[in-house]
Amino acid sequence: MKPIPIRRLRFLTALLSTLLLLAGPAFAYPLLNAAPAAASTDANTDADTDAKKDEVSITLDEVTPWIDDKGTLTVRGTISNTTKKAVEKPSLSLQMSTRKLDSESRLTSWKQGQAQHRTVADLEHDGTEARKKAKKDKDSGSDDSSGITLDTSFDDTIGPGTSAEFTFHIPADDLDLSKSSPVSSWGPRGLAVQLGDDTGLRASALGFTTWYPEPEFDQTKISLLAPVTLPGHSEGGLIPSDRLDAAIAEGGSLDTIAKMLEHKELAVAIDPRIIASFEAAIAEPPPADAPEETEEPDGENGEETQSPPVGAPENDDADSTGAELEAAEKQRKRLDSWYQDFVEAAQKHTVVALPYGDPDLSALRGTKIDRLSSFAQKQREIVKDVFPDARTDIAWPVAGSATKNGLRALKKSGNSTAIISDGQQPSITGIHDDAHSQTTITDDGESTIDTLISDTKLTDMSAEAIAEDNPAGALSELVAESAVIQSEAPYRSRSLFVPLPRAAASANWEQTVEELSSAPWIAPTGVDKILDSGSEARGLLRTDADAPHIRKRAVESLAEIRANQADFNSVFSDRDSADIRLDRELLTCTSAAWTLGRNANICAGQAREQSENLMDSLHLRKGSSVLLVTGEKTTIPVTIVNDSPAEATLRIRMKPNTPQLRAQETETVKVPAAETMRVDVPVEGLANADVPTTIEMVTADEVVLPKQESLLVRVRADWENIGTAVIGLALAVVFVIGLIKTISRGRPKIPEQQLADAMARAKTDDPEKR
Fold first, then answer.
1. For residue 581, which phi and psi values (nearest 5 degrees)?
2. Where is the sequence biased in composition, kind Basic and acidic residues (predicted)?
3. What is the pTM of this model?
């Protein structure tokens, strides 16, 4: 065997090294990629979400929450097969717990395991085919039919990527529930809709119904409180007309509130922002033919009036403006009509006036904008003006946020009652006790405040049902929970308090109130009736360290905004109104609703942007450089632009950077909202120079506004007079030169004869001969 040449060996070695280098990243990639994949929570979450989408599921669209001996249990829902494989020969059944779930532990156990249940209806015995067979048997003389029906939109297959509907109808007589001893047999029963095939159970959905064979016992009084508010940032703290119009439209949040007022005992907590916004939106507009006041003729401020394009219709703008005015007037009338109807209906209910914007008062306490807390509470008078009987003495801290110091501050500011949760002031009997109580707000126990205790269990379950896209199952559980509470002490009358979420009303609000209020063991009661009853002893106030609050960063941001704009507001002729607009706007970012969505920082960012826009809306129109003559007293025109929503009062100060120019402040002027004004600044040029100057807007409080402008003033001598003098001097020089030349040439000589005759005439004495 011949040895490999050294040159070829070197070549092979280099080639092998190159291949290893190229292959290295390929081998290393799986190892490098493995570590972040294991630590990627987002990736896992997305994978879990995709896995959940690729499954068979059941959604309940209707569950009869309670049924008496003459009723019918209805369970309706939808089966969704999001897999790529069909469900062949499906089995569908409705299971019911064999015993009543008369305690919270039994309700929880049923949700976790559905133990001890029986089939009350299924596809095999109660489906369409089974009913056809039963009818055929009946016609032939055999009667083995029942009133149970199961209707489905599928036959023997649920295709991939499709959905199918089903409806169970089961008369009370076919539920095999006892009627002989109503008090002992009544109570919640668990329901489970189960879907299976040859592979086993594919999907299930849970619900509840309460058996109510007319037992005789005392009803549980429940008072529901519905907040009337529209959380969200808005300029000046008032809700725009377009948003109000959307809210009163069919299905809107305020439309939902109006429908809920059909429940006589429902109490409403009204945000003054709603009242103030409607009052502003429905105010009569100024007459269309009212003359507009202007400070100067068109074109005087340096702007040219542009003609419409050639060939364009001359009345386009007029038609467009007319259509907009007509649409705005229709909207105003719609808002006015809804508002008047709402006020008339709400006057029949207990009205609680909220502080402006329904703020998280606890988050404001002890901060640089603590004063907003007292301001917001004083704004409750807006509600009082419309609803004279409105309660302005009920404070509503965010659930879990009440403290002794906070309650003491609330009482000091005029509140006699505070709404707190039973987690902070628990029952001492171990069951759901009366909502009306008292709690001490000082360490010595001498000072107390009335408390209205919210039932946390019912409140949280109501919020969960409201948040559901398909709330039927959650609502049936809510009603079952109220039945469990009734079962705790059936012969003891109790008053419970359930506030709805502190957010804009949604479609499920009405259904939640309806289901809870219509249960026969529930007696809807007004808030005022609960407060008029005697108070129940409860445990001492507990402090919740994890209570939700508006985050500190958002509050600090709002405090900074207020500090920056407070001085700026001195420019407005009506500063008090400007401060009110500012405070109202900031309060929209402290709403208790933000403790649910955690969006206060977003709102604070919007408030900051609006504040900056407002401070930029008052500015000077930049001009070109100015030529000025020394020794002359004149004026320099400056144009003020006020794009803000309020009249501004200010004066102009021009500050030259060098002493060659002298300037004076102008007189104080008032610039109307959305207008411009030209102001003349007195100046005097002292010496030749190019003088950079700064033009400032100054308020009556000597606050210099942030928007300044620079201007170059070219100061020059009086060239006209100097030119005249130079020309005159030149003419004088020419005259002198001519005179000198004339003298230098001498006088011309006179002939002797002429000279003799002149001398003879001079010597004669006869004046006539001279």
1. -60, -40
2. 119-141
3. 0.80
